[in-house]
Fold each of these.
Amino acid sequence: MNTFALIRVCVTALPIAVSALASAQDAAADDEEIKHGEYLAIASDCGACHTAPGGKPLAGGLPIESPLGTIYSTNITSSKLYGIGRYSLQQFSEALRRGIRADGAHLYPAMPYASYALLTDEDVKALYAYFTKAVPAVEEPPAKTTSLPFPYDLRFSMAFWNALFLEANPFTPDPRRSAEWNRGKYLVDGPAHCGECHTPRGFFMQQDRSRQFAGAVLGSWFAPNITPDANAGISAMGADELFRYLKFGKVAGKAQAGGEMGIAVQLSFSKLSDDDLKAIVTYVRSVPAIGDAETEARFAQGKPLTEVAKFRGVGAMSSSEALPGGAAQLFAANCASCHGIGAGGSRDNYFPSLFHNSALATGGGRNLVATILFGVNRSTADGLAFMPGFGGNATDIAAFTNEQVVELANYLLQHYGNAAYSVTPQMVEQVRSGAPKPLLAILVDVGKGLVCALVILLILWRIVRHSSLTRV
Ligand code: HEC
Ligand code: HEC
Ligand code: HEC
């Protein structure tokens, strides 16, 4: 080849090479963004709600019991027909951060958009890239869709709710705090949405920010107080223990993650980077402590049975408890094989001790009842934590009646947990069925539906009007 021809080849090839290089760089940047989006989807636990038991990933159909009725999640795969494949970035952002669907209808706050409102633009973009480019399309609608009774079917009433309670702007870091603290606050309040479960709700189901993380009933379970209060909260759980709780779902001799927390740990928190988990721990341990009537940390309550006579004046075992079918019998026949006859658990702590156990000293014993009914089923890098349920569901090994659960739970609380708690058949029934109803739903239930809803809308309208007037 002569020099002239060589130059010609180079000149023609150069732009091709440059553009190939550029598109390779683009593809790498795309991959990077999609990977970041996938990590955020895990941190936000989208899959926990948008996947039905036994269903295809992210294809929706999971029933979420809310005080207003059952709300079903939707298909958020890249399917253009049944999923969100046709969403523009702007529409996706509106759904995620403002609770507005592509067709303009309002979402119910069972979709935690009030927390996702804090997601940064960059993170929303990465999530969008992941959902539209990398999540395989599932070309079918969810088996069930939401239809709530009047007046909750009025989706537009959520516009009032949003006007009152929705954060207007994405997260902005506090320059007075460390980068780690800010990262933790972002994750906790935004994607990981800890407050959706752990913060009690006000009259309108909004998170009561003045009682952030003070503990709340959550369907069948109780999400305990996780503020740093010495007795009511988790200050007795060290930073390292909280880290391990989030990563493995268990702190030996203190607490285990069952119910919704077990799912959140398995699908989300256990898969976060250690740096992100440390940031979460740093922030959670820095929030204001909120106390209640508790005078002893829940990880310290209860004693082995042999010491019980000395403890709080509780006698060892009453004769009715020891009767065939009584509480002590129920325990010996159903629980002792794993948790030990003295309830001390196994030496390696795989089977936890029932004294010094958070489940028996928080939320009035609700998590003890839920554990008896539903068991535990959680898997992390630490292995499988499995306890069968006794509530009579398909795979349970026994079907206790409500009275049996009451008897067993109260016996355990008296001897090994918070002896001031007393479980009732009503609580057991509530735990079996899902959600207790807050004031708003109860008012509507007792037949005052229309009047009540109108009054509420009127009040909301007046508040919104008032606040927009005062802003001017
Ligand atoms: C706590 C449960 C929960 C979590 C977590 C959750 N969602 Fe949802 N999402 C829902 C429910 C329920 C609906 C339907 C609400 C309704 O019908 O009003 C929904 C609706 C949506 C919609 C509207 C879809 C449509 O039908 O047009 C989008 C988009 C969406 N979610 C995306 C996400 C993404 C992305 C994540 C994670 C960042 C996520 N969701 C996490 C429960 C959840
Ligand atoms: C979907 C609801 C949900 C979310 C989200 C959630 N939690 Fe929980 N959490 C629970 C429930 C329910 C329990 C009780 C579990 C049990 O006792 O088996 C719990 C238990 C805990 C405990 C143990 C308390 C004790 O005394 O046993 C800690 C600590 C905790 N959560 C921290 C967090 C943090 C930090 C986040 C966010 C990164 C978070 N949780 C997000 C529902 C949730
Ligand atoms: C086959 C063994 C087995 C049997 C039988 C069993 N458990 Fe468990 N239990 C476990 C395991 C395993 C765990 C979970 C430990 C973990 O989360 O790491 C557990 C956890 C618990 C917890 C803590 C749950 C939480 O989320 O905080 C309580 C309370 C409990 N069991 C009570 C009982 C009672 C009461 C009975 C009898 C009705 C019983 N268990 C029967 C194995 C068993």
Note: The mean pLDDT is 88.
Amino acid sequence: MAIQWYPGHMHKASKEMTEALPQVNLLVEVLDARIPYSSSNPFIQTLCTDKPRIKLLTKLDLADPAITKQWQRYFEQQNNTKSMALDLLNTDPSGQIIDLINKLYPPQTERNTLAMVTGIPNVGKSTLINCLAGKHIANTGDEPAITKGQQRINLRNGIMLLDTPGILWPKIDHPNSSYRLATTGAIKDTAMSYKDVAYFAAEFCLAQYPKLLKNRFNLSELPQTETELLEIIGKQRGCLRGGNRIDFERASTIFINELRDGKLGQMTLETPEVIDIEIQQVAVMKAEKEEREKHRLEEKAARKRKTKANRR
Ligand SMILES: Nc1nc2c(ncn2[C@@H]2O[C@H](COP(=O)(O)OP(=O)(O)OP(=O)(O)O)[C@@H](O)[C@H]2O)c(=O)[nH]1
Ligand SMILES: [Mg+2]
């Protein structure tokens, strides 16, 4: 089942972002380099499409380098858009980002350039702002929904930044996207089941990154199933319950946290090719749902007609 997380503060933040738009000159959209498609909020895509946009792929250090290059090429083809990949924990790309902002929106003498920093929760927006400001201004943390309200930061170089809370959208269409968001840490723990997410991530890793699994968990043979993999992890990490049974919930939490922290190695969960495939799958799912609903309503109407006829 798909995971959905859209608490009230995100709805409020989306409204406040729309209200701030008239003053905004440029959009800095922060995406997670491990899930550049699933971390693209469709609501943010509709914001000021006529204004220049910088797509920054953060957590470069955790992503598969070859796939990051594919994504950068993909984003550079988009109108009025520049893209850059960043490792904000180990490098300081502030000079390059400021140059990019000034290139896309040349500085005006009479007023600061207002750049709105947007993105999903936990993607690194506040870390980016602290990096650009050269000091700790915005609170950061390794969990979603740290920033709860907008904040303006004057960089004193002609650029004003607008930090915004991480937002998701009311309905994530494809279950894969919600699982990828949960795998990378954009969904609050209380809105997901680690076990469900671990099954999704295990299936993905077994298919796409078998070598990383073998290395991390010292496996000579690759397990055949997700359950087998989680059993091995559970045994190795001492996740046992009474009767020596595996505690799958604990094994799943450990697996997901190690994956998020990059302990398995650099991984990207989707390539640009996934987009068209999953858009088509969503269209099929929607058509099937409509068909089921039509059928349900027809049956309901038939039942009503029958009851009426019986009463006569
Ligand atoms: N490995 C890695 N971690 C990063 C990078 N950038 C940010 N982080 C970490 O990601 C976590 C979230 O960072 P924040 O800056 O708080 O994210 P945010 O987008 O402001 O999150 P919200 O305010 O909750 O929406 C923190 O633990 C950061 O240290 C990066 O490039 N690489
Ligand atoms: Mg923040």
Note: The mean pLDDT is 95.
